[in-house]
Amino acid sequence: MTAVKAPHSLTEQERLERAVGSLRNFLRDKATNNRLFGGALESTDLELKEALIGALMDWNVTPPPIASVTLATHPNKMLLIQSAAVFSIRSSALYHAREHMPSSDGGTSADDHAKFPEYFALVQQMASEVEEKRGAIKLAQNIADSLGSMGCRSEYGYYWVYGYEW
Fold it and tell me: Please, which residues have CB within 8 angstroms of residue 84's CB and are 6 or more apart in sequence?
């Protein structure tokens, strides 16, 4: 049995690998769920890493300007995953829009890229939820920082619920 590393001893690369796994689980992008496409994954690990980095960059440049965060210091890991999912699904929507070419033969039609409308609607809904949550969290952090960090961490945080950090 392999020992689980303590969160404080993880390298940034190990954190990124764990975050990719969490994002892939959130997206349900698994070979067993993609039977119609021969078990191929919709997103590569590199694409998911880019989505996570994009979500971190988006957090760090969104007002109010508070301390920059990393995978280790992001205050809400689930919100980070949801934000990265928005980036990932938006990228997939662009791909399916570009590859959309319906075909028919002998009364049978096929179009495995007719997903753009559903993806687009999902991205809009998720993006608005992420923006609302991010705004509320950053506002609360800004107020707490101005009060001298008088708040305390909740037992309902990511680490306490899932038992590990990344």
Answer: 19, 23, 48, 51, 52, 54, 55
Q: How much is the pTM? A: 0.77
From its phi and psi, is residue 43 left (phi > 0), alpha (psi between -120 and 50) or beta? beta
Q: Which three-class secondary structure state does DSSP give residue 129?
A: helix
Question: What would the two tokens of residue 13 be?
Answer: 């690369």
SS3 at position 109:
strand
Q: Quick check: 20 and 52 in contact, CB under 8 A?
A: yes
Mean pLDDT of 146-153: 62
DSSP assignment of 46-93: HHHHHHHHHHHHHHHHSSS------TTT-S-HHHHHHHHHHHHHHHHH
